[in-house]
Batch of 2 targets.
Target 1
Amino acid sequence: MPEAKALLEVDNATLRFGGLTALDQVSFDIKEGEILGLIGPNGAGKTTCFNAMTCVYQLTSGEIRLDGKSLAGIKRHKITKLGLARTFQNIRLFKAMTVLENVMVGADAHSKVRFVEALFRMPRHRHTEQASLARAKELLELVGITARHDELATNLSYGDQRRLEIARAMATNPKLLCLDEPAAGFNPAEKQRLMELIRKLRDQGVTVLLIEHDMRLVMGVTDRIVVLEFGRKIAEGTPAEIRDNPAVIAAYLGVDEEDAS
Amino acid sequence: MDLGALFGSFDNFLSFTIGGLVFGAIYALIALGYTMVYGVLQLINFAHSEVFMYGTFAVAWTFIFLHGTESATWSLGKALPILLVALLAAMAMSAAIALLLERVAYRPLIKKGAPKLIALISAIGASFALAEAMGLRDRFAGWVGLKDDLEDYVAPGKARDVFSNPVSIQPKGLFEIGGYSVTDVDLVIIVAALLMMVALDQFVRRTRFGRGIRATAQDPESAALMGVNSTRVVQVTFLIGGLMAGAAATLYMMKIGSTRQNAGFILGVKAFTAAVMGGIGNLRGALVGGLVLGVMENWGAAVFGSEWRDVVAFVLLVLILLVRPSGILGESLGKARA
Amino acid sequence: MAGLSSIGRRWDGVVERYNAQPRIVKILAVTVFVVFVYALPLLRPPILTTNATDFGGVMFRVIAFALVALGLNIVIGYAGLLDLGYVGFYAVGAYTTAVLTIEHGSWPFFLVLPVSIGITMLTGVLLGAPTLRVRGDYLAIVTLGFGEIIRITLKNVEWLGASAGIKNIPHPTGIGPAPEPPFEAGGLFEVPRLVWDGFVPSLDNDHKTAFLAFGSSDAIPYYWLILTTLILVLIGDRLIKDSRVGRAWEATREDEDAAELMGVPTFKYKLMAFALGAAIGGLSGSFYASRGSGYISPDSFPLLLSMLFVAAVIVGGSGNRWGAIAGGALVAYLPERFREFADYRMLFFGLALTLLAVWRPEGLLPPRRTRRAKEAEAEIEALEDGELEGAHDA
């Protein structure tokens, strides 16, 4: 089987904040169509890596490429056009907007409708609105919160809010979906549902990057895993490989490598 | 535009510059109140201008009380005893107004976690109410039946009426720089402002209260967890701002000699400009910002004409915000959050 | 506080019943309402009428302020940008109109109107481009400064009339013959007013309003003109809010960083809100300039007015277009209605603002959604309290 091409290439990414090196020459690829897990103990640099990939931070050196195109200097609001979308560790929904509106904002990312077209309800506006609405409803159905479509985002339960964030990100039609601890605070049943959802997303053609702390979830849903510690990549491989990797075990348990093996 | 007016002669240049420093010192003291409240609460205390204004009235009232209503012109030395009493009175008055504001217009909103916009509206309302109340002081005196007794203090209280200190202070030249004569009044203002800054700086850096203020400014939750009483911290912040404004009011009355119910307004906006220019939340920044603003404003008035004086202040503000938003000295107290 | 939210619920109930009516009924109701509003200054109803001043003039002011509040609501309420210098745009609109119609030109009003709007919009863009990148609180001060810069500049520049202002600003051309005071009222026909004796109305044939002539003494045609404009802007507001533009504004206001990462070009939309708000302010200012008295001066645009506009939007409930209109109307109407208390007006205003902000931060008529959110919170609180009490009992 031909090797799937790399959708995202992290190439010697280094990020320094003043004296702190948050990322130190991290390199890995995310292959198209795979579900990649990014794990590591707290402070390892996972969210920093995420932020670098979504252009929230600019790298000090090294490069990140999406589909061969460098992300250096790209403005934040352009990443969705490139096909990158993300959710947030601490849920950042548009609280005063409804569930449906939140998702529509995502769908608007590719809208070409201009002010005048919207004001005079010209054809492009009407067609785009219809299409966005349809897609939004589809996504709400996919993540399972259709019943709450008219509710304010702030009134949703925690689990529904996380699901809404995923729907909103999916509405931007991404090639690569980055999920930042999507299962935080979930009970086992919800985690199971989340795993199924992630697989369904992949089946729709989306590549998924996942930061998670729950090992069972990561092992269960990902194709490959990258492990960070103190801003450096310490391991990369399949779940089975990572599970038995002494360096990884040491990182999590704080045990010397020699002692662990 | 007349550059010659400013740079033509050294005397002129000095005169405008030192005059600017004098006013700048006053701006700086008022700016402290804005910068501290903003540093701790991320709120623009719009009504701080009235805190200052009430202080100016307190100064005039002190002179009326201790001297009577006859006009007189005294030297600084002669006026000094009453001035010191006036200083205390002004500081007390301004502090009282500041604490009142905190209790009535801000605390309920902070407790409710209301959006900053609403706090601003509350402040705006309080600012209007306070200014108007001063303007209507003779009516209020009438209602409580004290109109005759308090007549000297309340005067014809129609809007925009100027209320003067019966005692004018005659500045006396102390020494010369170049051809310009530096007066005692000017010197006292600049030195007094600097002293108060230093005192405040020490307070914030060395005392328990000061640490509490800085901690709350940087991270209110952690500070609370560490046992810092945030309500108390806020009160102290307002109190200090009030004391500084009272001092500024006294210096202002020394120089200008008269006030009115809306005297606080434009001064307040400029003082806030100074605070932002120096770096919001940064106490030393308030000093630097104030002085820079005072001088630039005077220079601008010299070159472009005095009717453009206020515009200079605003244009400066816009420029600083565009070029260096964190201010000349950068933000401090707690990195004021976006 | 409970009282107000039950009024809110009852209002919601009324709205629901209204929405349930067949279309024809709704159209009829709206038409009747609109006709009533147009006729209001002619009807001069007893309690509403201001006797101390010309009611038509007051109504004009009310609608002018409502229009301004509507524009500012886009800036503050939708996009979340705190603008404390909105009076600047009002002034630019008024002065552009004055300059082009009389001071340095003699263009007809309706030709000047789009130019005035355009220039004000440009001013908004020029002001917004550099300043919308700075933090929200700073934006407030910068816009305040801008408002003052405009006023001071108007006061000092001879070409713009300096302190004396500009007089004899021509009125818009109406329909039918022009008025020729004092005998010819102009217009196609005349409409009488009502005068009331207690609660008994009668036709007042001494005071008639010409349709449609814009003269120097009768404010009612101006009222009709600006009311029509308000209705158009209201419709436009509704259309834009319910589109990707409105969503982009709200997302920017709620969480700018998240919005950007979801593909919203926040700066562009902030600038758009600013420019649109400016345009509406300029529009209202143009009408103000060409009204009956035909006179504007820098003193007509004090900082106080900016504060009043902001208060109007916030008091009405930020983000709610009807609240903004109500707020604007109140702010214009109350001082005129209670002129006897003229001296205490500002004091009451200040106290009212503070009390309102402290007691009811959400505003008088917040967007329905906020009320729903609050009620949901109240329900949850009640449940929790109930559970706690239950636990104690057990």
Target 2
Amino acid sequence: MERRRSGLRAFLKKNFDFITGILSEVGLTAVIMVVAFIICVMLVLIKSMI
Amino acid sequence: MKRAFIFVAILLTLMAPLASSESGQALIENANSFDGKTVTFRGEAIGVMIRGDYAWVNILDGDYAIGVWCRAENAKKVSIIGDYGHVGDTVEMTGTFHLACTEHGGDLDIHADNFTIVAQGRDVDRSADMRVVALSVALLAVAIIVVFYSWRIRNEKQKIMPWPSY
Amino acid sequence: MIPALTREDFKVIGFNLCRIGNILGFLLLVPIIVAVIYREFDIVPHFIIASSITFILCNVGIHFLKTDKKMEVKHALCLAAVAWIFCMMLAAIPLWSTRTTGSYLDANFETMSGFTTTGLSLAQGLDHLPYSINFYRHFLQFVGGIGIIVVSLMILSKSEMSSVLAFKGEAREMGIRPNIVRSSRIILGIALTFMVIGAVLFSVVAIGEGANIGTSIFDGVNYSMAAFSTGGFAPHSQNILFYHSTLYEIVALVIFLIGSFNFTFHYAVLSGKRREIFKNIEIKTMFIVLMLSTLVISGLLLYFNVYPSASILFRKAFFQAASAQTTTGFGTVYPAQIAGIWPSAVLFMMSIIMVIGACANSTGGGIKAIRIGIIVKSFFREVKKALSPGSAVVTEKFHHIEDTPLTDTIARGAMLIALGYIILFVVGTTATVLCGYNASSSMYETGSAVGNVGLSSGITSPAMPVPLKITYIFLMWAGRLEIMAVLVLMGFVILALRKGVRRR
């Protein structure tokens, strides 16, 4: 178990940039989606006020 | 008189499934005119997804497939899903058509009130065409010979003259 | 003066074409694995036939066309153009022989749509296709997506006009072939990583939504290949609507948005340069265009009472806008609804964003975000020049991996390619209207073909007129190669006809 944990830690450390890079790109797409949803919500709110 | 009335009522009830169902093409291309109305739709089951007490059954009519939202126990009646090796169960349902269902994120769908398996699906025989098999064997043999011969010539020439590299 | 062509020029192209063909020969054997898993033994011979024909042609070609002449940029550009046609015709064999398409021309349309990651489809009976054939269609898109990144980085960027596409971060200029081999490995590694992540996410979500495990995994792999390659093929006639799942669509959005990013951007971010996310001109351009188009499209659909709520607008309007701009082509709306119910103004807006396209050096098509960003900055530069004193030196720069000055060459190159796409768009729309279709649907369909998108208003079907099918094949091909390679090929042919072909 200890060997497996240290193996995983070494893998994560070695590929830190790669893994955080993937997470960053996924985060970017999440931001795009959130902003788009906010735009949709704002439009519906504006229409309900008119 | 009473017997005649009962006879006609039974006849009408039996004839109900034969009432014309709308085609997938008609429903999709004239979605505006069917929106909110009760429709009858018949086709082949090509997908079932159970979600708790309800389920999605995708029904294909010709080239058009529509998602039907029905009770899970009805969806579980579908025994054969249509794919390459099978013709799926033929399903007929009656329900409310939605152009942009607010319950399901704006999807075009039908919420089924009635759901019947009209015909069982079946396996489709997909045996290989022996002429195609023979052609493939012949071409494979030629390809192996050509590739092997080409590789041998290249190897022999490599000894005399190196392979171009850039 | 342009020198006359020699036989060696054609031999260089032909020789390398046959080497690419050998790779295709191996790729045509991959779907056999799927055929064996699903016991589709009747389909296996069709792939063996296609692969064998490819190997025979290419190895005979290699034998007779071997040459010592070094490959130059003009050869590479022609090779890129010819390779797409050559591969299209050979890869069409299994689709035609299994009657997936009605005719050999339709099969060529399908494979060109696959290799160019367009997604317009003429396949019949999608829901009853053999699993191996369905996998093959998506595999073509994945291969095509990787192929165009390699071509874009290694070949198209060699021309002065598109030099902004050159791979940044590699200082060595080693010639074309060694760079292709080494860089292809990196591109393939990154593509496979995201493809596997996508396949796992799609499969898990599908199982969670009630689909059976086999269907979930098969669809997951296919949708992931189509999403990352921004291709748009789907294993079902309902496209992504088959799953009736917002979560499934969100996974699709994540994967195809990532697939539309520039490969050099991926390389930079995955190497630790995460600040690139905030500074890169393409990401900024794509973000602005996508948000503006979401605003306009959602606003119009809300105004015309097509969809009433924010969540529905997100699923339909934003998804379709993102699918159009990234040139993916996944649909959450039936084509007949787009043509019949969506307002014409929305179709027009979608046509524009389809032609604008995704990032350069990605699997996406269109004019490309970097060129749009460069064109906009060029306008700013001209306005600054007009407002500045005559003796002032006005400069402008943009950030793409590194800060790059905006020179007249770069601006001219961007505008020329953009003009080329606009010309293709006008020609395609005219051809479609002449075949009897209405203007807004014609623009939508043409934008989809030129931008390699794949969204359809219903025009693309087996019943399309034959001249229109050929036109769309040309549009997909030219659009994929950013027109330049196609023009160089035409120049080659004209030069050969005018000046003849010398022996040496």
